[in-house]
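Summary for the funding panel

The consortium committed to producing paired sequence-structure records for every protein in the target list. Below we show the first two records in order, beginning with the earlier of the two.
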Amino acid sequence: MTETVLTTVLRPSAPTSQRRRQRRTWLIKETLAGYGFVAPALLFFSVFLFLPIIFGLWISFQNSSGFGVSTFAGLANYREMIHDPVFWKSVENTAVYTALTVPTSVLFGLGIALLLRAEIEGRTLYRAMIYFPMVISGVATAIVGGWMFNENFGVVTKFVTALGLPVIHWQSQGLPAMLSLVIMTIWTRVGFNMIIYLAGLQNVDNSYLETAMIEGASWWQRLWRVIWPLLGPTTFFLVVLNVIYSFQVFDLVYVMTGGGPSNDTSVMVTYAYQQAFQNESQGYAAAIGMFLFVIVLVFTGLQWRLSRHREVTG
């Protein structure tokens, strides 16, 4: 009798066991449903992102011209990259181009967003005009830039000479050529930054600004102490996107300057293109691409850590 009672007490009841099975079945269904929703995006990224990265890494260890059979080269492409002065020149040009375009376009975007946030007549038209260069293809923008900065008949050249200033050699000197790329990039990118900042400003609670005004804060103090900190996530997003774009710029440089003169505007992507399709050294071009991938990955990781640290510390 005692054993029967103990067995009955220790044995799980049928309803409890059934609930466990139902919960396990529910968890399995939820997991499968989650994977089902994620599967299309995962398939897309696998085909168009992860597999190309793996394939590019494999090509970077090959001696390949794109035709015929490739041979294993080990670290030869990376050793060549380390000792290639033109490659390091392209790295330097990419860093200079990024340092000039990213903060300038972000700050211009913020300034225009603050101006066009106000209730002014025709602000929708102004927003559309500023954003319009963003919808034009990169090649078309570069062609327009080439016409504008042409040394013989360009609009900018005519304007400079009309002011009585000396002619600027936009295409035959390195510094003016890089400056023309920076100007066209800012003109193209500032509209996108403006739109994102306008969206971010919609989330800024006006009560903060009103409180600051009551406390006697000036416009600059409200901008620096209230608006700018609240736009931190938006700024982080824009900085990461603009840096990635600057490191991957190709069409604008290729069409406007071709990397010249004397490689003074050559960036990493145009140099990789030159190695792959003009010098038929796809293994070396893939090594340059992997170097660029690591730089962008490290920068994005550092930016993310800094942003997270700022959010945690308040």
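The next record, for a separate protein in the list, is shown here:
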Amino acid sequence: MDTLLQDLRYACRSFLSRPGFSALMVACLALGIGVNSTIFSVVDTVSIRPLPFRAPDELVSLHTTRLANGIQRGSVSYLDFQSWKTETQSFAAMAGVSGRTMTVTDRDESERFLGALVTWNLFPLLGIDPVLGRQFREDEDQPGAAPVVLLSHGLWQRKFLGDPSIIGRPITVNGAPRTVVGIMPEQFQFPQFAQLWIPLVPIEQASDRNTRNLLIFARTKPSASLENARRDISSVADRLASSFRENDGWSATAITMRDELMPRFPPDQMPARPKS
């Protein structure tokens, strides 16, 4: 105990004699602990616990690749997405996402949120249902369709005080009215920290093959392995590369949803995988 008291007195004297340096060291230590705690919580959620989706082992993400440029997980153009859907054989369903910031205006008060454009089938593909209202319909994800929006539980509570009568009412998103059709479950924010979602096709359908800004998620058929899916998507991408000048040098691959959601670290900082 005497030794501990001596150490504490010495630490206090050192802190008082060099307060700036000591404060910096404490801040660095706190930052390091915070970063490591955050990394552990993410790894615990993604690598250890089951993913919060229906049949998560069937879910994959699809990426473009261009090895000559070091691109191993590239985004996808809308036109390539359409080609992948019609020409592949290993996938039961395929959905697209594009992250955006969106401004929600209520009573002349505007606030920006992270949001996403999504194809109508994204949440059914994941097996996630709204807690209030309904999913997007296929006809709402078409050019010229009536504008609609899905809200996160948090945005609904914060911006609209959890009022259930918001379903079926218009709100202003990016300066235009959109009808609220559903509220997603509490804690659900996909991809990343999205707070609201609008249909993708009416906005992206005019994009060309050089505009690669979509994330693609797919559910494999029960008979298709991950290797089957990789060969299938790579073969289709290679055919597109030989058919379209914009796709020259580009291919594609599939990775598991778990690997997609894992944070990426430099090789020398990779956390150890848990033992099975």
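Regarding this second record: Residues 2-48 form one domain. The longest helix spans residues 19-48.
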